[in-house]
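Morning. Coffee machine broken again, so started the prediction first thing and wrote up yesterday's gels while waiting. Chain of 728 residues, entered below exactly as on the submission form.
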Amino acid sequence: MVTHEDLLEVAKKHFGFDSFKGNQEQIITSLLEGKNVFVLMPTGGGKSLCYQLPALMMDGLAIVISPLIALMKNQVDMLRGYSENDTVAHFLNSALSRAEITKVKQDINDGVTKILYLAPEALKKKENIAFLQNMKISFYAIDEAHCISEWGHDFRPEYREIAEMVKMIGEAPMIALTSTATPKVQHDIQKNLNIEDAIVYKSSFNRPNLYYEVREKGDNVNKELIKFIRHMEGKSGIVYCLSRQNVNDLTNTLVSNGISAAPYHAGLDAETRFKNQDDFLMERVQVIVATIAFGMGIDKPDVRFVVHHDVPKSLEGYYQETGRAGRDGGEGLCICFYSPNDIERLRKFHQDKTGKEMEVANQLLNEVQSYCESTICRRKFLLHYFGEEYGDHKCGKCDNCAKVYCQVDMTEVIILVLETVKTLNEQFDAKHIVDVLKGNKTVAVMNYKHTNLENFGELEDVEESSIQAVIRQALVDGLLSKDVQSYGILKLTKAGQKYLRKPYRFEIAISVKDNEDGDDIIMAGEGVNSVIDETLYSILKSVRRTISKKINMPPYVIFQDTSLEAMATDYPISIEELQNIPGVGFGKAKRYGEEFISVIKKYVAENDIVRPEDIRVKSTVYNSEKRIAIIQAIDRHCSIDMIADSLGMSMDEILTEIEAIVSAGRKLDINYYIDEVVEPDECDEICDYFRSAETPDLKTAMEKLGYDDFDETNIRLVRIKILSEWGN
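Came back before lunch.
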């Protein structure tokens, strides 16, 4: 029997630890006793020690199954750093040469290696199975075990074959470890590994030092991100994107704006990935822009912020990725930029999946959307999702807890929701319940003939988002639950049944305004929505009006309102700063800029204005090259629709690019194309309209000219012609 003192002595000798965290000691003891173990421990809780320490104490070789080469390398490097002998730990994967593989196997044969890391793909190779069959295996550790479950956020089919491979090599105790698992995922892992008898150790998911915030993802998301990172100067951070292209583009943008950043994704060669990872660990770069491939097993305790530039695919993934912030117990800011359009885009990506895969993926997205749109305390929502209750108090460290709410009575709505769930025999998900109550005649509603239900259309005047909010609150309050076996299906709990028998007032919170007492919390994640200086804005409009009269052109031809708003926010006091204002550019700054700069300089001096830090989101190489290609093609008088096709763009997208080019001061002659597609009389009438119009707004133009008489694309083309000829 190993005593507490024995374990501490080994932990001190090999790892320098004087004590254990959380459940570590109990987990290690159970494994030493030969029992199967399931460990659910959030990132930073010390999962690695739970199998590394017993591996050093037990006879034989411990096999650790791990999903990523980067994770294996990091873990092996750490173990070798603790040990006097570099042979104590090895990994086998595709990154090794034949000679290196031979050396690894020789060290294992010699009995000097205690831990071997493999990916499941390497474990299933016949030569590796044959080799390991002759070894004494102390135990198997399955790290990132959520990869086993089809209901998990990072499912890998190879992980489901582990139990079969273990049986071929030789059975031994098993420890499965993960930082994110809902009750369903946990059940799936244990069942697949045949360790339903495992002792389960669950640590709290609450990370009290982390601040959670969801921000609306608008057109200026990169500008907002740059300002946030500059506010975090000298502090390490990770920015997650969903695609490799997004990673590359965003990295280019950050670097172009003076931020030390490097990309990390599976499309980079191994040498580049390792270098970028090492640069981040050694703080040669401040920010890693990455896909979810980065961070697993990376032991950097002082990551101070984690930003999701794109909405994550699941709450499990989100929780795991945010968990890489503040692992030392210090500051950890977790910012997620959210747009419903991103959710819809991800749903489209799921359309090529099989029926079950698509159902799982969409249900995971539903949970993400609920989290982002909820007014409930973020921490409470996350903990509830993972089966842990937080209580009724506010956490004080999330954006929702920093807001003031009014309580809205939704008693009638919750009663109808619960009644409908019950009437439909608890066989449908939240979306279907909402469709029935709203009276939406979807395919599913029609096929099941639910238009005949008494409750059909009863809430047609209530916003869908409000009904969804009621369902979210009911789940957190325990009136409803989601079935473990059929993901997303709503079930009435005993409390829900009791509520229907004896209803009471049911309220949901609607945000009114930011909490004035929560400035310290808001500053932690520093909202960066700019405030326009209305006085300066009025002055700049007056300057524009004077110039427009002088040159006999509409004011918007000089600078549009959005440009003036930006000037009244950022206070540019040089031509260089002015040309970085949206819609200005070099040409317009040179032509009209001096008068505006002069006025702004005087205003800043007279009013002792402390100017905000200059935020310049410079174009990435990709955008610059694309615009150059458009300009060159127009100079050659290529058809605009043909230019769009060659660049893989829609007509709307290419016109938007051309409008941006012209607004920035570049003169483009598109008369050759207008002559082909727009009738002369129509062109003249549109020109006459814009000569006297107070605004270049397209919607206003359509209303004035007539939707039935004029094509929107033609109006945009003529507007571009006018802005280019008159303004540039």
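The first helix runs from residue 4 to 15. Going to sketch it on the whiteboard this afternoon.
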